[in-house]
Amino acid sequence: MVSPFETDVKWESFLKYGTRQFCKGKTIIYKQGTMGEGFYYLHKGLVKIISTTAKGNDRLLNIVVPGQIMGVQSMDRHTHFTTAVAVKNSVVYHFSCAQFQEMLKAQPELLSLFTQTVSQKLRILLFAINMKALTSEEQIASLLLNLCDDFKNYEVPLTQQDLADCAGLTRITVYKILKQWKESGIIEIKNRTFVIQKPELLRYPYRYTQTALTV
């Protein structure tokens, strides 16, 4: 779920164009319905992207990990149609539209890569919509696997509360599911990190025979 723009660009050389911001856990970085101008790059921490429905319910759309960007929809200087919330203490860099123009002068190929990122965000949105049809167990499995793809290994530095917040599930539900998986040898939990021992059982839920838990 990582786009070429987020993996190929050496962001450290571009941070000088952005404005550094420290966000405590549960801080709103940008809010749905507010006017945006530019985009954000996550340097440290973890951020969840949610959308509020007409009924006032929040729906998880995406998890942003270090090295990824967010808020690209406001590059046209329109309102944000999502909200970004820091799951834990995070460091982000904001790049205004003017700063992005400076970056383009230094590296023109950023334009095509940025377009690919927007396309990737649409695929993420489709994934989020489809995930709502899954059981709680399948939602957590999908979320963990996607985070593994983002971190490029099978160790995910999250707590159970982080995972519950990201998935929009209760901590009790997450605890029960992870307890079953730990007893079955699917995962281990070490120093606030989930280590996935048998990713194939999470990637193909029909191989896992225990009954899915619900909220």
UniProtKB/TrEMBL annotation:
GO terms for molecular function: DNA binding; DNA-binding transcription factor activity. Residues 20-121 form the Cyclic nucleotide-binding domain. GO terms for cellular component: cytosol. Keywords: Activator, DNA-binding, Transcription, Transcription regulation. Residues 134-200 form the HTH crp-type domain. Transmembrane segments: none annotated. SMART domains: HTH_CRP. This is Transcriptional regulator. The lineage of its organism: Bacteria, Bacillati, Bacillota, Bacilli, Bacillales.
